[in-house]
Amino acid sequence: MNVMQLRWNELADVKRELAARDWFPGTSGNLSIKVDDEFFLVTASGKDKRKETDEDFLLVSADGSAVEGFAGKPSAETLLHVEVYGKTNAGCSLHVHTVDNNVISELYGEAGEVTFTGQEIIKAFGVWEENASVTIPIIPNHADIPALAKEFSRYVSEDAGAVLIRNHGITAWGRDAFEAKKFLEAYEFLFSWHIKLLMLKGR
Ligand SMILES: CSCCC(=O)C(=O)COP(=O)(O)O
Ligand SMILES: [Zn+2]
């Protein structure tokens, strides 16, 4: 099996797991995985990502342009994945819209970031100190994708990380699919925990 097929299967596994969590409402979400320094696979635009087909992914070059021979169009948000691979050594980038990530992005959108403290799951980000904190930036949701990608790019420097897009969704990336999914799941856990806590405290 060649590298592209291996990565295709890996991304298909991640896609299946995120679909099982119902993290692709209304055709939202896009996923990518690096094949080599010149190419990555990205989800096809506008499809129901819960469905599994032979046309789920397209090969694109490092600048996001589609390679001939693949059906459909690359994700409308491919330029954000381009930023991740262009600026870091990440191997996988995952974007999902959830109610929880949208609520958190709106609650803290004006502040431009949100910090979570004293939660065991913060260890998923590799931070093991007592009472550790983790901060995620929140950027405005520009309709113009090159403008969105430029804003997003300001927060892309580490090989693993995440950015919230206000009233839109989260993009999380990591050195490989395992790490990208770990970051995504840990952030979604924190969002859900925080919202439930606020609701129970009546704030
Ligand atoms: C209906 S979701 C609007 C577009 C979007 O934000 C998204 O994540 C999916 O776009 P794609 O082109 O990747 O299908
Ligand atoms: Zn989106």
From TrEMBL:
Cofactor remark from the record: Binds 1 zinc ion per subunit.
Ranges of residues in domain Class II aldolase/adducin N-terminal: 9-195
Keyword Electron transport tagged: no
Record's catalysed reaction(s): 5-(methylsulfanyl)-D-ribulose 1-phosphate = 5-methylsulfanyl-2,3-dioxopentyl phosphate + H2O
Residues engaged in binding Zn(2+): 95, 97
Record function comment: Catalyzes the dehydration of methylthioribulose-1-phosphate (MTRu-1-P) into 2,3-diketo-5-methylthiopentyl-1-phosphate (DK-MTP-1-P).
EC number assigned by the record: 4.2.1.109
Transmembrane segments: none
Any single biological process term in GO: L-methionine salvage from methylthioadenosine
Pathway(s) of this molecule: Amino-acid biosynthesis; L-methionine biosynthesis via salvage pathway; L-methionine from S-methyl-5-thio-alpha-D-ribose 1-phosphate: step 2/6
Protein name: Methylthioribulose-1-phosphate dehydratase
Signal sequence, renumbered to the chain: none
Entries under Gene3D superfamilies matching the protein: Class II aldolase/adducin N-terminal domain
GO molecular function: methylthioribulose 1-phosphate dehydratase activity; zinc ion binding
Family: Belongs to the aldolase class II family. MtnB subfamily.
Keywords assigned: Amino-acid biosynthesis, Lyase, Metal-binding, Methionine biosynthesis, Zinc
Organism expressing this protein natively: Domibacillus enclensis
Cofactors named for this entry: Zn(2+)
Gene Ontology CC: one annotated term: cytoplasm
Subunit structure: Homotetramer.
